[in-house]
Write a structure and sequence with these properties.
The structure holds 2 protein chains of 2 kinds. Helices cover 22% and strands 25% of the residues of chain A. Chain A is of the alpha/beta class. Chain B is of the alpha+beta class. In chain B, 16% of the residues are buried. Classes of the chains: A alpha/beta, B alpha+beta. The A-B interface holds A 61-62, 65-66, 69, 97-98, 103-105, 107-112, 152-155, 186 and B 9, 12-14, 16-17, 20, 64-66, 68, 70-71.
Chain lengths: 235, 80
């Protein structure tokens, strides 16, 4: 690659993981621009657009509902339609579902408690720009911090999601076994992260940007997958 | 006139708040309370000539922002 890949991280009122995303992407070699939700620049120069975690608009009405309609989203929709990469982390995942860029939605955790802990995730599909640096069956350890992370969708939709290999990550134990016990928020089918059919949009509840530097480091698998995807295209 | 929107999780979605309150009610002696679902009510003052117009406007607001049909169902009533 001739120059560093470019990423844009969008901040909404109430986003609080934007700085960590900028930091994580920078240490992985991206050139990062921080954008504000009211900005309406063209996103054409960016290889990756990131919607970070936090509590945009205080989670009012529904998590991510108002952020989904922010001025900048017209450009994010365009970016996604062109097949370019869009990543939503935690609140970002909620926003992508509200935007209709990903199926399903995220609701209140099953046991009503805010969960702040490390979880194990089973890589279900390595055929994506987000997981290609791993193999199916690999187990990652990433932190979660959410009160509304329970993924839900209609049965028909779930069948489609599974059929098309859209499930990328499921909650599991340290050995990669998926079970009710390790599905802390009660997500449908223990789903922690999904991509769209085309594969260019990915949302996950855990925080890879918090596991890029000092912690387990497994967040790096996502960044490496993205980098190698972009590298292939540059050639 | 006022458009009052009642929003609940769809029946297929587990409502942990409602479930918790149901247990609390039963512990307080209300054994007859078999199911609790907790929703929300949104009141929007709308300027419309007719009830029909107000209802259509409110439904549009629901489609655009107020309701997520993936996990919620809703009803609109118009109050004078």
């Amino acid at each position: 690659m001739k120059s560093a890949p470019k990423a844009a991280v969008i901040t909404f009122p109430g986003s609080n993981c934007d700085s960590d995303c900028v930091y994580g992407l920078e240490i992985m070699g991206f050139e990062v621009t921080a954008l504000w939700h009211k900005d309406k620049p063209s996103l054409a120069e960016y290889d990756l657009v990131v919607l970070p975690g936090g509590f945009s608009y205080g989670d009012y009405l529904r998590c991510g509902a108002i952020a989904a309609l922010a001025p900048i989203q017209e450009q994010v929709h365009k970016h996604a339609e062109q097949g370019k990469l869009v990543l939503g982390i935690c609140n970002g995942f909620q926003i992508l579902c509200e935007m209709g860029l990903l199926p399903g939605g995220l609701v209140r955790n099953q046991k009503m408690k805010f969960l702040s802990t490390d979880v194990c995730l089973k890589v279900e599909n390595e055929d994506s720009p987000w997981t290609s640096a791993s193999q199916r069956g690999d187990v990652w350890k990433l932190p979660i911090a959410h009160g509304d992370g329970r993924f839900v969708c209609e049965e028909k939709e779930l069948a489609t999601i599974k059929d098309k290999g859209q499930v990328l990550l499921r909650y599991c134990d340290a050995k990669g076994n998926v079970s009710k016990e390790f599905n802390l928020n009660g997500a449908t089918d223990a789903i922690a992260g999904i991509k769209n059919v085309r594969g260019n949009v990915f949302g996950l509840m855990p925080h890879p940007e918090r596991a890029t530097d000092l912690r387990s480091g497994d967040g790096r698998f996502i960044w490496k997958s993205i980098l190698s995807t972009l590298g292939e295209k540059a050639v | 006139m006022k458009a009052r929107v009642h929003i609940f999780y769809k029946d297929s979605v587990f409502d942990p708040q409602g479930n918790t309150v149901q247990h609390s009610l039963q512990q307080l002696g209300f054994q007859q309370a078999s199911s609790v679902r907790i929703g929300k009510v949104i009141d929007v003052e709308v300027q419309s000539a007719t009830h029909d117009e107000a209802k259509k406007l409110a439904e549009k607001m629901c489609e655009t922002l107020l309701v997520n049909p993936v996990m919620e169902s809703f009803q609109v009533e118009i109050l004078d």
